[in-house]
Specification:
This protein is α/β, with parallel strands linked by helices and 336 residues long. It has two domains: 197 residues, Quinone Oxidoreductase, Chain A, domain 1 (Alpha-Beta Complex), CATH 3.90.180; 132 residues, Rossmann fold, CATH 3.40.50. It is 27% helix and 28% strand. Strand 15, helix 9 and strand 16 form a beta-alpha-beta unit. The chain binds zinc ion (ZN) (2 copies).
Length: 336
Amino acid sequence: MPHLARAAWLQAPQAPVTVADYPVADPGPGEALVRMEACGICHSDVMIAGLQSLPLSPVVLGHEGIGIVESVGDGVENLAAGDRVGITYFASACGACDACQSGQERFCAKQHNHGYTRHGALATRTVVAAGSLIRVPETLSAEEAAPLCCAGWTAYGALREAAVASGQLVALFGMGGLGHLALQYARHMGVRTAAVDVSEEKLALARKLGAEAAVRPEDARQAILKERGGADAAIVFTASADAVPAAFSCLKRRGSLILVGLTGDKYSLTLAETVIKGIRIQGSYLGTRADLEAVFGLAARGAARPEVTVYPLDEAPALIQRLKENRITGRAVVRF
Ligand SMILES: [Zn+2]
Ligand SMILES: [Zn+2]
């Protein structure tokens, strides 16, 4: 029997995001029907809404969702009605390629993603592959748990890739949804932090969260390289190609440049400087399953908490627009 749901849709490539009702079928084999409690709005939603072509259209957006399982399809044994779960960007992978075989499913070329190639979590109800769901502690509120499914997971994964040790300095470019969580994770690891952003409001949040330095991009080189001897790693969370050379210029010799923010733009760096300074440049995408568990564990222990503002679903189109314009501090979360 179909269930009625309400969701934020991208009806066609580059179409305005709209909120509309639709019927959700019962879950098929290997699937689960989830009644959503909350879903965060991510910069990837903005990017997907701007793509010239879509693999699935129309598509329900959203990949930072917390909900309760209502029913499961045949063959689902690890979940039951009433379980609290999280929906991430990762929906499924082929299971057979080198990436899948080595536990790096997020690099599978045949992967599916919620809110992109599969319907997402920005809906009152959604049907997803049961194997993609993660368990979420009951102690966390839905609105605080939601951003952990993408922003927290990705931020934590990037920090792990940066391989910074206690006492070292990490420069965080972009103090949005990911950056403000990365700052908290870094502090929890005993890593010193320098936050960089164009927004005074976001820099104020960084100072409140204990950043050692919080500066605008034009002041970053002075504050990080000149006054502090350079960062051991710089992580670029912002989806701006201009931030890449700015972050590079703050690194000490043998430093690491970790790229996270997604944009189709090109960046350029000086080859000789990269070579002579022995700089490592690496992309970081989502995280491992262990990273995700670590993120929820840290949240349950109160070591890091996202700054969230809660909105109704009907606000989703406006929130995506505001995020595109860089006018959201912390994370905007839809509460159903
Ligand atoms: Zn995301
Ligand atoms: Zn694969």
